[in-house]
Specification:
Blueprint: E1 3-8, H1 18-30, E2 35-42, H2 51-57, E3 61-65, H3 68-75, H4 78-81, H5 85-89, H6 93-106, E4 110-114, E5 131-137, H7 140-150, H8 155-176, E6 179-182, H9 185-194, E7 202-204, E8 231-235, H10 241-261, E9 266-270, H11 276-281, E10 287-291, H12 297-301, E11 305-308, H13 318-325, E12 330-332, H14 342-345, E13 349-350, H15 354-367, H16 370-384, H17 387-391
Parallel strand pairs: 1-2, 1-4, 2-3, 4-5, 5-6, 6-7, 8-9, 8-11, 9-10, 11-12, 12-13
Length: about 400
């Protein structure tokens, strides 16, 4: 089989958050056509137990250790050098040496890079593969711009700088590769506006959801057995700032309005690594913070409503697709569904501000129309978000036929 180098910023397993879910599905898809050599970083020691799973799937592998505290200090050098901070954060000399050695020994025909921070491992040189695909997934420079809009000085200055410098870096990457890809048409069009010279090689390749894994017709134990009434649930990695902002806004500005009408309503925040601000929300009336759970499906299956109150977001939100796949009513902000196919938005209840969000959740749990919304949502997922069908769009950019 032809050989392919696959680079991703975090070990793509277990598939519990977006930056692992999409790379893992792409890797599985590509290994049907290539011998895939995988290079990635591990920033959570608990993830090292999954190395054998990926070694079984791949040819050669290299997993570099990333210590977050040291990486944050190292990336500050970028303020002096002019480099993106996020690129320096993911820089590892051992992985650099492994990539250079593999390119010289194996001469893979293609390379697939997940996230622009990993493009630094493929500097120009005679051993570069003939085909290079850069999967930006989201327009991260725009994410940093959104961060800047939500923060005060000095972080506003840092985030604005990162947005500007990263966009310039991404444009330079785009000039070197055969194709740049994004999770949605919206993200591809945004990048084309920011980097018009790259519009001809900027393409949407939609993500998906494992609708067989996220099935509503299986038996799941009820994690809310002790809850006094209806439950709204939010799922996600809870030290990720957009998620922190989302659940804080819901718990403090939206939930009180719902509980004024539905006094026994409970809000569950489900996800790994809740930061101090999220943990503090657990002290509010009607709020429960679970921390990491082994399986989010029971929490989705038995929820009255899934909420996605994101005020900073890009791309396609897996939490929305997973709620839809579980046939749940999903209430979301426009930001949270901005990357969805327009036909899929028909399966989501969209609310722009705190008052309309509270009213939408209240109507779902009191009028009991969640089931009809959920049935519509799952139909949209089955129609539009099949991984195997969507990932075939990568083939022409790798020079392969269907």
């Amino acid at each position: 089989m032809p050989e392919l180098l696959f680079l991703t910023q975090r070990i793509p397993y277990p598939p519990m958050k977006g930056e692992k879910i999409r790379p893992l599905q792409i890797l599985r898809f590509l290994r049907e056509r290539y011998t895939v050599h995988l290079g990635s970083l591990i920033d959570d020691p608990a993830d090292r137990q999954y190395v054998p799973v990926l070694q079984e799937m791949c040819g050669e592998t290299y997993f570099a250790t990333l210590a977050p505290r040291l990486a944050r200090l190292a990336c500050l050098r970028g303020l002096a050098t002019g480099e993106p901070l996020s690129t320096l954060y993911f820089r590892n000399r051992g992985l650099m040496r492994w990539v250079a050695d593999l390119l010289e020994r194996r001469r893979p025909e293609a390379a697939f890079v997940c996230s622009s921070a990993m493009a630094q491992y493929l500097p120009p040189g005679p051993n570069l593969p003939h085909r290079l695909v850069m999967d930006f997934a989201d327009v991260d420079s725009d994410k940093w711009r959104q961060y800047a809009d939500k923060h005060g000085w000095p972080m506003r200055w840092v985030y604005r700088r990162e947005s500007r410098v990263l966009l310039a870096y991404d444009r330079a990457i785009g000039r070197r590769v055969d194709a740049v890809t994004f999770v949605s048409r919206r993200e591809a069009e945004l990048f084309s506006r920011l980097a018009p010279e790259l519009a001809p090689k900027s393409h949407p390749v939609s993500s998906g959801v494992d609708a067989d894994y996220f099935r509503p017709d299986r038996e799941y134990g009820n994690p809310y057995a002790a809850a006094p009434g209806p439950v709204a649930v939010f799922t996600g990695t809870m030290n990720y700032w957009p998620n922190v902002d989302a659940v804080t806004w819901f718990a403090t500005a939206i939930l009180p309005g719902i509980r004024a009408a539905v006094g026994n309503m409970t809000f569950y925040i489900v996800g790994a690594n809740p930061d101090a601000k999220v943990r503090a929300l657990g002290g509010l009336q009607g709020v429960t913070v679970t921390g990491r759970v082994e399986d989010v499906r029971p929490f989705l299956a038995h929820a009255s409503v899934v909420v996605a109150p994101l005020r900073v977001a890009g791309g396609v939100q897996n939490k929305v697709l997973e709620g839809m796949a579980m046939a749940k009513a999903v209430v979301a902000t426009p930001r949270a569904i901005g990357g969805l196919d327009p036909a899929a938005v028909d399966g989501v209840i969209v609310a722009e501000d705190a008052a309309s969000f509270a009213d939408s959740v209240r109507r779902v749990v009191t009028q009991r129309d969640g089931a009809s919304w959920g049935e519509r949502a799952r139909r949209r997922v089955l129609d539009l978000y099949d991984w195997q069908r969507n990932l075939r769009d990568f083939l022409p950019y790798l020079g392969l036929s269907g």
